Amino acid sequence: MVPEMDQDQFAWDESYDTGNEKIDRDHKQIFMAANLLHKAIEKKAEAAVMDKCLELLLEYTVFHFNREIAFFKSISSTVLKDHQAYHDELFAEITTIRNNQGKISDHDLGLALENWITNRLLPHIMEKDIEALNSVPNPFANL
After folding, report:
1. How far is CA 60 from CA 12, 29, 104, 126, 143, in A?
2. What pLDDT shows up at residue 139?
3. Phi-psi map region of 21: left, alpha, beta (phi>0 left; psi -120 to 50 alpha)
4. Is the Cβ–Cβ distance between 51 and 101 less than 8 Å?
5. I want to staple 49 with a disulfide (CB 3.0 to 4.6 A). Which of 39, 45, 82, 102 is the partner?
6. Is the residue at 12 inside a domain?
7. Which residue range forms the structural domain that includes residue 121?
8. Inter-CA distances, 56 with 33, 107, 118, 125, Å
9. Is residue 49, in this structure, part of any structural domain at all?
10. What is the pLDDT of residues 65-111, one digit of tens each?
């Protein structure tokens, strides 16, 4: 059973927009998956439900990171190597959160997710993604 969505913990804000429709759509999907997980934690859902929500978050994050790196390669971004390294860090962090499921309290799992979104993912979106998009004369030429 998928938890019902009341109010999103991680609300998308227009200030997070990068100006690239595909990248922004992916970011919104990551937020959606994070909100599903947060709601599952909040509702004290069964472990299998939380596991599915975490898996969705991981899978979509990997999908997005791969697509974003492919795009930045296609536009010859000068910060590609640094961007890939940052993605690797973010992926390692969310994987650690995933691996801690069942080993820490649901409350701590929720706090770890909130910390990752707020202190790692959002700065990445608002700083690193914008930097990568601005690292070429016309970052939207290859859309």
Report:
1. 16, 7, 23, 19, 20
2. 47
3. alpha
4. yes
5. 45
6. no
7. 21-133
8. 6, 19, 19, 19
9. yes
10. 999 999 989 888 888 899 999 999 999 998 998 888 888 888 888 88
User: pTM of the full predicted structure?
Assistant: 0.80
Structure tokens at 24: 């922004």
| C-alpha of 100 from chain center | 18
Give the tens place of pLDDT for each residue, 7-44: 788 888 898 898 889 999 999 999 999 899 888 888 88
| CA 21-143-69 angle, 5° bins | 80
- What CA–CA distances, in Å, run from 46 to 37, 54, 63, 74, 101? 12, 13, 26, 42, 12
User: Does residue 6 lie within any of the structural domains?
Assistant: no
**Is the pLDDT confidence value at 4 over 70?**
no
